[in-house]
C-alpha cells in the first residue's frame, strides 16, 4: 500500500474504537446501573489512553509527510486535513492528562446528575473545580501561548475564534432584545398546556415524529435520558428524549431536535463511514440541522397543524381549541429558566450567558465558587427573573460536568446557520408549507441531505454552509425569520 492507504487503514481502526467509546457514553446515560459509575470511569479512561496513543502515533507524521496531496482527490485531501489537525492537537496534550480528563468527566457526570436532582451545587462544586482545572491545563497545552478558550473552541467549531463569536453575538443581541421587549410589552401570553399526558403515549408520538423526519430505525433507537442527546455515526446512530407528564411538547421537540443531529450522521455518504470525513463537520453545523428540524420545520404553523391532529387522535380533547391555538402554545414567548425549553426569541440569550461565563472560567477571571452568584446576577440582568434554585440555574446543563467548554456557543451559531439554510430551502421548495401541513417533511429533509448532510466533513464549517446556500453565513436571515414569525403571531 501507499502512504495514504496505510494511513487510512490505521485511521479506520481509530474511528471504530472512537465509536466504541461513544457507545460506552450512550450506555452510561441510558441503561447503565448507577453502581457502575466508578468502574465506567476507569473503562472510559482506558479507552481514552488507547485512543490518545493512536492519535499521537509517530507514524501518522511520517505518513503525512510522505503523501503527495496534489495527487489526491477532494475527499482524500479533506481526510488529510482532518487527520493532520487531530494529530497536531493530540500530540500537544500529554497522555496522562487526556486519560485523567476522561476518567474525571465520566465520574463527574453522575455527580452532577445527583447534585441537580437534590438542588445542591455544593455537592458538585469540588468535582467541577477539578474539571475546570484539567480543562485549563488542556487548553494551555493546545494554545501554545494563544487564547485558552480558542484552543478549546477548536474542538467544536474549527476555524473560528471567541472574538469572532462575541462580535456575532453582539450583532444579534439588539434585534433579539428589541423583539422580546415588543412581545412581552403586549402582556398577552398564550396559555400553557395543562393536563396529564401518559408516558406511553408520548413515547409513541416520539417515534412517529422521528419517522416523520426521516430517522432510520434500522440503524438507530430511541431511549430516555436526563439530558437528551444523539450518539454515533454511520450505521449506528442513537437518540434519546425525555418525558414530562404535563408537557408532551418537551418530549416531541426534544425528539425532533435529536433527529436533526441523527439525520446528519445517518445521511453521510456510506463511502465516508469510519473515516474523518464520515462525521458532521462541526457542532455549529450539527446544530443547524437540529435547530432547523425542531424550530423552522417542527414549530411552523403548517407542521403544528398536522401535529395537533395527531395529538387529538392520541389523547382526544386535550384542552386546546384548535390548530391555531396549538401553534400559539408551541411558540409562546416567556422568560423561562430552562435553556432546552426556551422559545426561539429567548434561546440565544441563554447561550450568550453561558458563553461569557465559561470564557471567564477558562481564563481564570471567574472561579467555580463564585459561579452561582455570577450566573444568578447575569440571569436577572438578561431575563428580569430571579433564579429560584440551582437546577433552574447553574446546574441545569450537563456540558460543564463532562468538560465540554467551547460547546455552548455552537448552539447559537447553529441557529444562525439554520436561518441561512432555511432561507435557501424555502427559495428552492416554494410549496414547502403545503407538504408540512400533511406531516410530509421529505422535501425539506431531502434538500438537507442533498445539499449538506451527505458530504459530512468534506468542507470546513463555513464552506459547508456557503456550498449549501450559495451565500456567506450571516445572522440576518435568522433575525428576519424571527421577526416575521413572531411579528405575525403576536400582531406586532
From TrEMBL:
Please state the Enzyme Commission number of this protein.
3.4.17.19
**What are the catalytic residues?**
258
Catalysis: reaction(s): Release of a C-terminal amino acid with broad specificity, except for -Pro
Q: Which InterPro entries match?
A: Peptidase_M32_Taq (IPR001333)
Gene3D superfamilies, per the entry? 1.10.1370.30
Coiled-coil regions listed: none
Q: Where does Zn(2+) bind?
A: 257, 261, 287
- The answer to keyword Phosphoprotein applying to this record is no
* Top-rank taxon, per record: Bacteria
**What does the UniProt function comment say about this protein?**
Broad specificity carboxypetidase that releases amino acids sequentially from the C-terminus, including neutral, aromatic, polar and basic residues.
The entry sums up its family as follows: Belongs to the peptidase M32 family.
Q: Under what name is this protein listed?
A: Metal-dependent carboxypeptidase
Q: What is the taxonomic lineage of the source species?
A: Bacteria, Pseudomonadati, Pseudomonadota, Alphaproteobacteria, Rhodobacterales
Amino acid at each position: 500500500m501507499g502512504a495514504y492507504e496505510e494511513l487510512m487503514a490505521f485511521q479506520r481502526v481509530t474511528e471504530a474504537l472512537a465509536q466504541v467509546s461513544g457507545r460506552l457514553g450512550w450506555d452510561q446515560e441510558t441503561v447503565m446501573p448507577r453502581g457502575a459509575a466508578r468502574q465506567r470511569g476507569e473503562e472510559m479512561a482506558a479507552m481514552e489512553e488507547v485512543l490518545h496513543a493512536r492519535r499521537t502515533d509517530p507514524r501518522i507524521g511520517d505518513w503525512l509527510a510522505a503523501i503527495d496531496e496534489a495527487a489526491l482527490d477532494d475527499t482524500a485531501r479533506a481526510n488529510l486535513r482532518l487527520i493532520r489537525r487531530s494529530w497536531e492537537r493530540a500530540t500537544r496534550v500529554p497522555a496522562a492528562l487526556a486519560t485523567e480528563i476522561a476518567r474525571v468527566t465520566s465520574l463527574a457526570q453522575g455527580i452532577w446528575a445527583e447534585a441537580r436532582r437534590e438542588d445542591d451545587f455544593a455537592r458538585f462544586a469540588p468535582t467541577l473545580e477539578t474539571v475546570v482545572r484539567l480543562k485549563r491545563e488542556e487548553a494551555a497545552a493546545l494554545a501554545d501561548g494563544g487564547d485558552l478558550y480558542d484552543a478549546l473552541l477548536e474542538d467544536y467549531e474549527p476555524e473560528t475564534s471567541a472574538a469572532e463569536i462575541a462580535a456575532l453575538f453582539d450583532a444579534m443581541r439588539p434585534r433579539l432584545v428589541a423583539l422580546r421587549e415588543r412581545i412581552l410589552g403586549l402582556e398577552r401570553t398564550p396559555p400553557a398546556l395543562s393536563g396529564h399526558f401518559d408516558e406511553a403515549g408520548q413515547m409513541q408520538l416520539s417515534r412517529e415524529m422521528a419517522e416523520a423526519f426521516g430517522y432510520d430505525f434500522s440503524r438507530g433507537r430511541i431511549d430516555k435520558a436526563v439530558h437528551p442527546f444523539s450518539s454515533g455515526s454511520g450505521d449506528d446512530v442513537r437518540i434519546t428524549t425525555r418525558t414530562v407528564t404535563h408537557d408532551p411538547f418537551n418530549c416531541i421537540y426534544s425528539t425532533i431536535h435529536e433527529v436533526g443531529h441523527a439525520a446528519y450522521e445517518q445521511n453521510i455518504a456510506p463511502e465516508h463511514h469510519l473515516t474523518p470525513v464520515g462525521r458532521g463537520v462541526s457542532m455549529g453545523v450539527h446544530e443547524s440541522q437540529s435547530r432547523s428540524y425542531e424550530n423552522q420545520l417542527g414549530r411552523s404553523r403548517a407542521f403544528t397543524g398536522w401535529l395537533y391532529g395527531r395529538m387529538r387522535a392520541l389523547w382526544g380533547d386535550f384542552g386546546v381549541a384548535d390548530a391555531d391555538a396549538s401553534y400559539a402554545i408551541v411558540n409562546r414567548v416567556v422568560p423561562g429558566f430552562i435553556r432546552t425549553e426556551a422559545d426561539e426569541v429567548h434561546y440565544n440569550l441563554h447561550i450568550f450567558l453561558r458563553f461569557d461565563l465559561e470564557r471567564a472560567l477558562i481564563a481564570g477571571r471567574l472561579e467555580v465558587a463564585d459561579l452561582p452568584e455570577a450566573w444568578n446576577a447575569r440571569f436577572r440582568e438578561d431575563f428580569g427573573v430571579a433564579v429560584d434554585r440551582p437546577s433552574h440555574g447553574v446546574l441545569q446543563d450537563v456540558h460543564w460536568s463532562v468538560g465540554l467548554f467551547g460547546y455552548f456557543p455552537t448552539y447559537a451559531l447553529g441557529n444562525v446557520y439554520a436561518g441561512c439554510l432555511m432561507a435557501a430551502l424555502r427559495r428552492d421548495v416554494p410549496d414547502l408549507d403545503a407538504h408540512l401541513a400533511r406531516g410530509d417533511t421529505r422535501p425539506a429533509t431531502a434538500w438537507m441531505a442533498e445539499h449538506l448532510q451527505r458530504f459530512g466533513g468534506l468542507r470546513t464549517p463555513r464552506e459547508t454552509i456557503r456550498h449549501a446556500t450559495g451565500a456567506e453565513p450571516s445572522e440576518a436571515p435568522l433575525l428576519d425569520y424571527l421577526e416575521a414569525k413572531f411579528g405575525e403571531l403576536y400582531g406586532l
